[in-house]
Amino acid sequence: MEQRKIREEIFKILFEHEIVNADAKTRSKEFLEVNKLSKSKEEFFVKYIDGYLENEKDLVVNIKKHLKGWTYERLGVVEKVLLKMSFYEIVNCKIGHEIVINEAVEIAKIYGDVKTKNFINGILADLVEEMR
């Protein structure tokens, strides 16, 4: 399974966690039982879910600092999850922002509103600018 597809599956699990408070760790285990990944991809998957959940409150605080003219509560679930994933990857995992933004925009095109990709791109560009 390619990395983008893995991120998309992580997004689905975290979306479910956000919308109905599903246990993301249990859903992750179920996913991994059905989908055999290489050892390195499985480790990425598990580490990602665990790290995201451990840092979720801090991610929200950081996102709120970058919302101009919006409140976090007004965001849709797709936007909340994509922003938290992206902030987690850029800030906590130190993954290159070009990769993260591209992946977030591609997922936004599939699951978001027509304006979601531009909104996500703008917030992430602001984060990257601040980090420089």
UniProtKB/TrEMBL annotation:
Location of the NusB/RsmB/TIM44 domain: 5-127
A biological process from GO: DNA-templated transcription termination
Domain of life: Bacteria
UniProt keyword tRNA processing present: no
A Gene Ontology term for the protein's cellular component: cytosol
Entry keywords, A to Z: RNA-binding, Transcription, Transcription antitermination, Transcription regulation
InterPro entries given in the database record: NusB-like_sf (IPR035926), NusB_fam (IPR011605), NusB_RsmB_TIM44 (IPR006027)
GO MF annotation terms: RNA binding
Keyword Endoplasmic reticulum: no
UniProt cross-references to SUPFAM superfamilies, sorted A to Z: NusB-like
NCBIfam families for the chain: nusB (TIGR01951)
Function of the protein: Involved in transcription antitermination. Required for transcription of ribosomal RNA (rRNA) genes. Binds specifically to the boxA antiterminator sequence of the ribosomal RNA (rrn) operons.
Sequence similarity: Belongs to the NusB family.
Name under which the protein is recorded: Transcription antitermination protein NusB
